Amino acid sequence: MSQKASRAPSVFCVEEAKGHQEQVTVRNNKSLLPLAVMGIVVVVWGLGPPTSKLVSAPPLIGTFIRFGISSPFLLLVLAVRGRWLSKKVFYATALPGLSFGVNLIFVFATLQEATVSVLSTIVAMQPALLLVLAGPIFREYPTLRQLSFTLFGMFGAVGVILGAGSDLRTSWLGLLFAALSLVTFTLYFVLTRIARSGDEVDPIEWMAGINVWAFASTILPILFMADRSDWLAFGGYDWLWISIVAFVTGVFGHVLMTWLHGHLETARSSLYILTMHLVAVGLAWPIHDEPVTLLQVLAGVVVLISVAAVVNSPDRHVAR
């Protein structure tokens, strides 16, 4: 999936104009391939929450096993391709990989103190956080239209999450853990994006390193927080559900997202990901018998309109 041609991972590219004046011009972002791949990512990531809910074992055990089976699988795929995890990529994936693993630990810690709706609502704030970071880090400055519809999309996502009418329950510690979950996933997202903005990075090799470090981050919590009864709770269909989460949502979805970091703006891609909440809610209906309310439908329409508006919005030409 990697390309040898030099390019910037943005809808902007730099060209030399006459008189050697450097300016930013719009890339041909009308290619349907990145949007099609993003659509696949949204579906497989949206599959994650309802599938994870089917796992009967404690979340920490499920996470440990998830990374325990996905890490060797990705290393095996690399070996079949005649490659190995290089030292450069191994060291480069240390911080984002640990962030990814710690993120899941904070997710589980949040769910001990708060409801899923509280966690999902705070995580839905990620596009706003990335809008703040995209300019100074990636020199991707969104237009006023992009900013406006991103906010509308966030409110729509919150409506989809809270529209089910579930009770909200949290403590101050739960809010802290949820905020740390948002920060650690954003850190993973941004660091992966930075890696894709420099040298070409093979998405499979990158995710192999990410999964190895994420697995490492679960070892200490497992040693100190899990007991024999937790391990005995895992079995039966749990292997099927955790395999879907590990290989479909995890390996397949995150490898595609790593590739997308080189083809879509940060602010755009994070907004598109909001539509995964629509997929999750839609799948929860047949899988968990959780009906979709009118408020969720209306909020979902707001999300789709916002995403469509950003997809078709013109890009600002910004001189470097």
Question: How would you portray this structure in words?
Answer:
The protein is mainly alpha-helical and 320 residues long. The chain has one domain (12-311). Helices cover 70% and strands 3% of the residues. The chain contains 14 helices and two strands; from the N terminus they run ββαααααααααααααα. Strands 1-2 form a two-stranded antiparallel sheet. A hairpin with a 5-residue loop joins strand 1 and strand 2 (22-26). Helix 1 (32-52) runs antiparallel to helix 11 (238-260) and helix 9 packs across helix 11 (238-260). It is globular, with a radius of gyration of 20 Å. Residues 1-30 and 316-320 have low confidence and may be disordered.
Can you give me a brief rundown of this structure?
The protein is mostly helical and 320 residues long. Helices cover 70% and strands 3% of the residues.
The side-by-side strand order for the widest beta sheet comes to 1-2
Percent of sequence in beta strands: under 5%
Structural class: mainly alpha
Share of residues in helices: over 70%
Q: What characteristic shape results from the CA principal axes?
A: globular
Tell me the count of domains: 1
